[in-house]
Amino acid sequence: MDGSSSKYGLTPEPPDPFKSKRRHEENKKRKNESKNKRVVPKNINYFHRFRNKSENRDFYSEIKNKTLYDNVKEMLEMLRSEYEINEFVGKINEYSFRHNVWKHFVKYVTVKEFCLAEHEYIDFDILLPNGYMITINTSTRSTLEQLKKEVFFQANKLKFNKRLLSMDNYLFVMLAVNGRKENIYDESCQLYVYKLKSPILALHQPSENVVEKKLEQDIGVAVGFPIDQLDQKISSEAKLFRVSLFEFCVTTIADRCCSGNGHYAFFEDNILELEYKLSVKSQNKIEDKKMIAKVYYRSFEDEKNEIDTKCICVDVCNIISEDKESGVVNIMTIPQLINFTLKELKSMGNDITEESKDFVLQIVGQKMFMTKENIPLTSFRYIRSSFDNNCTPQLILCRKKLIYRNLQPFVNMHVPYYVRANRKKEEITHMHLHEDHGDTRYLWEFEEDFRFELDTAGNVSVYDSEQRIFVRVALTVGRHVLSQRDSTQKSINDPRWRGYKMDLGYYLKDIPPAAQLSFALVSTVPKKNGKAETETLGWCNLRLFDYKNRIVQGRKTLYLHTPTTQNSDTYINPSGPEGMNMQRGSHPRIVVYFKDYSSRSRKIHVKYPEIDKIKKYVSILKSNPKLSEEDKAIDPKTVSIEEGKKLKKYLKYLDGTALTEGDQLYLWKHREYICTHFPNLLVVISDCKTIWKSREHVSQFYELLTRWGNISVEAAIELLDNRQRDCAVRKFAVDILDNWLNDERFKLFIMHLIQGIKYEPYYHNPLAVMLIRRALLNYQIAHRLFWLLRAELEQEIGASESVNGKSCRLTGETNIEGKYTLSVVRCTIMLECLLRANVRHIGPVIKQVRMVNELFKISNEVKNNTSKESNTKFLQRRLKSVVHDMEHVESPLNPVVILGELCIEECRVLSSAKQPIKLVWNNSEPLARLSKKTHQMIFKNGDDLRQDMLTLQVMKIMDAFWKSMGYDFCMSIYEVLPMGFNIGMINVVQKCVTLFEIQTNEKKRSVSLAMETACVNKWIRKYNDDTKLYLEAVDRFSASLTGYCVATYILGIKDRHQDNIMVRKDGRMFHIDFGHFLGHTKKKLGINRDRTPFILTDHFLYVIAKGRSQFKNNHDIMKFRENCKDAFLILYDHSRLFISLFRMMLSIGLPECSTQEDLNYLKASLMADVDKDVAALQFDNIFKEVTKSDLSTKTNWFFHSVKHM
């Protein structure tokens, strides 16, 4: 420790007792002297276990006269090791005869009273797991971990250590006061902390330790790197988070359902919230009795043996029926459908003894069931989508007992060593060593300004002899700068300030809990013209209050982050991540001193007051007659209608910094009215700088937050982006989401919520806990959360490694030394707890991880293939060698899908620059041949799929909004899953082709490179030759085109050529490959290739017009335009949400979604700054411009054809 440590009365740590050569020699000399005296003065006392005696009895006095031999024998009996007691005693005797001191001491010397505190050094007798015993002389101030290292260091010198495993397989065991054996799980404390009454310890391998090692190994394989040493690498805050999250998981899984259709891993088809409204086509089908469902039945033996070749089919024609007299529509429920089916089966002569309650319905080809009894069949997503798409629903009768027996039963979580250590910590740790020891005082007790001292800077690069540096520091809350100051400038050759007072002129009591200090180290070089050239060398944000709301004290060394272009003007970066640069190395650093309120004799913690104290202060404040007018709230009863309308207009403000100080004070004075009448204004009012400037405002705001009205889900998500850093506000938002989001809606936002964790200042936070809780209660969420967290982990580690040219994959043995950042540690702990709680699912997860690792290896081999063998043949040959790792495994994209046998002959390497691999598996579900025979996926290596996933996830949210308003735009949103650094999997949409493939087929009959206007219409008619089928296909094409035109326009999706647009055989079109969005376009010779807001060519309009040559002003085109406008205005109403979702993703590291300019593009496309009527008019004009001429798109497509034909 340097000399500065004594500045604030810090006590230096004791030296390592095993690193001092001098002490080692002294101890060795002392031992030799004791051998010559033939009498070994030992100050020891050993325990003895007595059965059937009171636990409170003190046994020390009863064993003082026993010899060491007798006490060791008692200890060995207690340990019950794999060795027989006689073998133990024999080994002790054997060792004793070889060493005279042992022979005399073991047999003849009786023990004396032992007191650890009286000696600086002590001899510990350690019983090894192989039956031998050695003596270690050590300092009483050494830790148990240091003692263990010394034990194994000495044991390795002897011959009898051959059967010893590595030391992390063993635990120390001591005898407690009551004579019982007690494992010591926490080895980090010094010896005098433990309540040892004798210096005899035993090392053994407890049964739970064997289980723990196997579990840690499996978790390490799943996560991607070993976690057995994690506890030694992380901070005390992270350790506490690890323990508390584990304990939370224990209570959560105890409450979750593990049986029947409520099982957390039982997959139930989604229930749609909307009532089913019959369309004209559906009405006609009812009258024609064509709205039917097929239900299949098989015998008990066939179902048990998974045979589906002898199924009996029943056609149910009255799923939906209408009473002709009253016009009432009747829709079957699940029990009614099962009863009807069983009745029909019995009428066919089938002998069925089971009752209807013994069955559930499974969707053909899917591991998805329908069991909800009182729900109309048309409220199930599968039934609804089947009828809407003119398909016949196909279901299978399955016996409940056969289905439910495959569900995992409840299993208690294995308690790891670090949790056991924490549970014992309070029992074995002296109070003065506990981190919470000392006195607690509150921030509001101090009457002083906030200040600290600037000491030195280091690791600063010198590139000019006249270079000088200074430190800029700002007191900030989120983006708001409350106070700012620059230090004096120092020469780059002597960057020392030594006690320089940094007084921000801010009263200590006024500092809010969310306050942070934003540091920037700035270099300045004077120029001849009198101006100076400045450059930010690094920045860092330091939270002033820790995870226990205690203000920072003492010396802090801050390693700075590399500067970005976003903080080039202000130098500081308050919106950046909190905490210093964990990689350290050669990064610049600064050293600062905060006031230490502790004394030499007593530690003092200074905390921010709890909510109870805040409420008391607020009540005193409100009763104060001298309260300023600015702090008084307007009575909600006196607010007029005009003032209410004015307040409502503030919801349009997307940025609190755009509000004037007068606007902020106006909102603040109406806070009581806003709290109850416009609770969504919390998004705006919490982003006002004036809220955080004084203790009076902060305390009243916190008190008001305890009785704030319910806000919308959209507002809650907006409160979790990078602008809001106050923990109380974020917790309020998390509670809203947890209460109002069902599992299906929760899945829509899980990707964004994971990014929201990055803006949490502490390891333990409500958002992380909520994600874990929802995952433990729903296995589909758990599966998705695992892969997204693992991809996030690999992305963060892999990004830094790839820059250095190293491997960037987590393979299970990856070394992440030096990369334990807050984000990495938090993701690792969340993954660990998720896997520990779902221990029965670790096997399937590991199989998925190994499959991905094998595909990554094969993909690299394919890319490096130089043999004459084609890449596809090479791929198929390699797949045969690893086929056992890739069959009968849950799909990483969706655990509902079980991948059956791998169809190696159908797997191939696609003709693309990154050479993606197309993989095909058989569908192993019963009767899959009737619906979906195979599961097809694409494995990509070399592309960052996070942008594709973000785009498609936002499209899912758009589709949910449209459906909630009664619009079904037949969106074909496929699954994309990033699985690490530039790797991932994509679900293949079957029975579809690209526009380029359609054009290529037409080219066989034409020599033109231009795409014929009628070619898409011809292709749709080819696969829908019946007039009725063709008209239905056109309707689906028109609906899907509406959705994708609006979605691609708002998201600014570019690079739209013929290979990025596909059409399905049933008429639906969709877009793929979203490599460029938010207006980022590809350029050719400096010219933008995409010059239209969205793609709408004559080829598409010709289909909408059903092949009519005069289609520009066709009625169908007019209707299509109105649908597009309606779809846009629905999304316009949710502008704040979409902007917030992309703001949350700024931290993900996508080049095209990283700056404020990218968000500004989204604001412009959503027209968020104008009224709804104006937005409708502007979109109408954009539509007219797009349909006026498609020359630029046709030109782009022409050159794409020239390149690829």
Task: Characterize the structure shown.
By secondary structure, this protein is an alpha+beta fold. Among the domains are: 60-102, no CATH class; 109-209, Phosphatidylinositol 3-kinase Catalytic Subunit, Chain A, domain 1 (Ubiquitin-like (UB roll), Roll); 265-405, Ubiquitin-like (UB roll) (Roll); 439-566 and 595-607, C2 domain (Immunoglobulin-like), CATH 2.60.40; 609-709, no CATH class; 991-1204, Orthogonal Bundle (Phosphatidylinositol 3-kinase Catalytic Subunit, Chain A, Domain 5), CATH 1.10.1070. The protein is 39% helix and 16% strand. Strands 24, 25, 26, 27, 28, 29 and 30 form a seven-stranded antiparallel beta sheet that branches. Helix 4 (85-98) packs across helix 5, helix 24 packs antiparallel against helix 25 (766-777) and helix 35 packs across helix 38. It starts with 20 loop residues before the first helix and ends with a helix.
Determine the strand fraction and express it as a percent band.
15-25%
Q: What radius of gyration results from the CA coordinates? A: 36 Å
Global mean pLDDT? 84
Helix content: 25-40%
Q: What's the CATH C level of the domain at 991-1204?
A: Mainly Alpha
> What distance lies between the first and last C-alpha atoms, to the nearest angstrom?
71 Å
Could you tell me the CATH topology label of the domain at 991-1204: Phosphatidylinositol 3-kinase Catalytic Subunit, Chain A, Domain 5
- CATH superfamily name of the domain at 991-1204? Phosphatidylinositol 3-/4-kinase, catalytic domain
Write the CATH architecture name of the domain at 991-1204: Orthogonal Bundle
- For this entry, what is the oligomeric state of its chains? single chain
Query: What is the tally of helical segments?
Result: 39
- Strand element count: 35
Domain PIK helical: 633-814
Pfam families: PI3_PI4_kinase, PI3K_C2, PI3K_p85B, PI3K_rbd, PI3Ka
Protein name: Phosphatidylinositol 3 kinase-like protein age-1
Biased composition (Basic and acidic residues): 16-36
